Input
Amino acid sequence: MKTILFDNIIYSLQQTGGISSQWAMLQNVMLHNVAINSMFLERNDAINNIYRKNIRTSEDKIVKLSHQLPLIIDRYSNVDIHDINPSIFHSSYYRCVKNKVAKSVVTVHDFTYERYMSVFRRYVHCKQKYNAINNADVVVCVSQNTRNDLLHFLPNIDKDKIKVVYNGVPEDFREIGGTPRGDRLLYVGSRARYKNFDFVVEALSETSYHLDICGVPLSIKEQKYLNRKLGKERYKVYSNVDNHRLNELYNQAKCLIYPSSYEGFGLPIVEAQKSGCPVMALNTSSIPEVIGETPLLMSNAISKEFLSKLKLIESPTIVDEIVEAGKQNALKYSVKQMVNLYKGIYEELC
Output
């Protein structure tokens, strides 16, 4: 029986997030594959991750290093395992294994650091990331756009070892019958500058819509900004929500607002579509590839265009068409398809 060692460092790096959700779905399915022995390398703090808590596995499947380094060091360290010799090593976030026998798989999620981070953070991240990519036997990209970015930043890479595996959206996301969609718009994810959260707030200040924000708690600066622009009664914040609660938010929202300037995939887009929620987004990076045909794509993050798109979702007929097209588009991103493609990669390497 072949052994795959899944490196769960991502569960220590974040409490929730798109990478964690995809990683957990892959592992939950692989645990039931009798042809493969799935093992998990992780730190003690991995269990704090929302998605890790939902993985039911026995202790004999979990490998922990005898000496755990501080996370800031451990996340950049190569993995040195003496107790087991895996056939395949697959890290959740760009770590390499010190084992000449094990085949290596690396999943590339995006090139955000290359585009938006400070010089020091970009240098440290890219050094680790490019080392993992260059030493991998298979490099998985989560979209064609991410594959194009990879070839842009690493033009000399062997193209034959690159595979595209789209993210999968679980059945947790679905329409809830009888749920009224009121005057609330939804924003999901990071509020980093390139995500254009401030643009959303500025544009909404010209309307009467309420805003639901799903992400990390607001900073004091953000609270003051929102209070000034919208007022305390026009926004709510939801942090560390599970898929069940997030699905409820999608079902209650008039529309998901996703004005990010760059995405490797853009998971909330498909989650919302699967939940029957219209999605307004920027026509850039991987977004047009993932979202499918829709009249709600914006060319630029400007209030005039934003407000014109909002008028479209005030028409029940147009909304019905957008929702149906979105649900059909979401069918392309199933967990089963994602896992089957990974299984094919593992089997080919073995």
